[in-house]
Write a structure and sequence with these properties.
Layout (H helix, E strand, L loop, with lengths): L2 H20 L4 H10 L7 H10 L6 E2 L1 H6 L2 E3 L6 E9 L18 E11 L3 E3 L15 H11 L3 E3 L9 E3 L3 E4 L5 H17 L9 H18 L7 H8 L4 H6 L1 H16 L9
Parallel strand pairs: 6-8
Antiparallel strand pairs: 1-4, 2-5, 3-4, 7-8
Amino acid sequence: MKAEEAKKIADQALQNLTDALKNGKSERITQYLAMLAKFHRYSFGNVLLILSQMPAATHVAGFGTWKQMGRFVKKGEKGIVIIAPMSIRPKEDKPEGQEQSDRAKPILRFRGVYVFDVTQTDGQELPEPSRVGGDPLHHLTRIKEQVAERGIKLDYDDLPPGADGVSRGGRISIRPGLEPANEFSVIVHELAHELLHRGDQRPSSKTVRETEAEAVAFVVCQAIGLETGTAASDYIQLYDGKSETLAASLDRIQHVAADIIAAIQCPNEQAIAA
């Protein structure tokens, strides 16, 4: 595939993504965000406590919260202990004539409470963002070869909880067991991080970085015929990305996406110069 053909494919795909972002959040991502709002944000200390007891934990909540979401803790599951604050008012006799505001203030104490990971529960399925579908065919092998040809190591271990992929600068880690289409998309996303966000021009904003990486993945996935649906726009909006965010990075996205497309479509042709 020639450079101009790859650029035309990228241009059309980016226009499709821009239109999707202008249409706002899909019903699926709206439901997913509503679910996330029900999960408490734990302190750093409690996060460490959770991970020390269940390193693979992703969505953690108390018994009552799970019940509100139509899920129930499985019989025999052992709870994850965290520390929760509680307020105790000292018992004392109120002296005659003393106003309520003059009485002793509550004392802050801490106690252990139990929470449970989603894997310890059964019930209604939790909403999830859309994912890429279809069959990447030989392109999955080609994208792995592309990663290696660029001097980047690809492995399938040491993933943070809840992450499908991580770019580490010269190394990409992917969660094992992903469906082929999703695996392809995640590899391209992390490769985009490697190509766009490891130099002096790395954007300081995480919203911009995630928008750029996911837009590159979207363009490449469309180019090989995968079913992209609302997966990319859902992901970008999770990081507060908008059509304006995308527009500001179009040249960077197009260049990297066209480079990857040309390389995986015609391995014997030289890719567009980076």
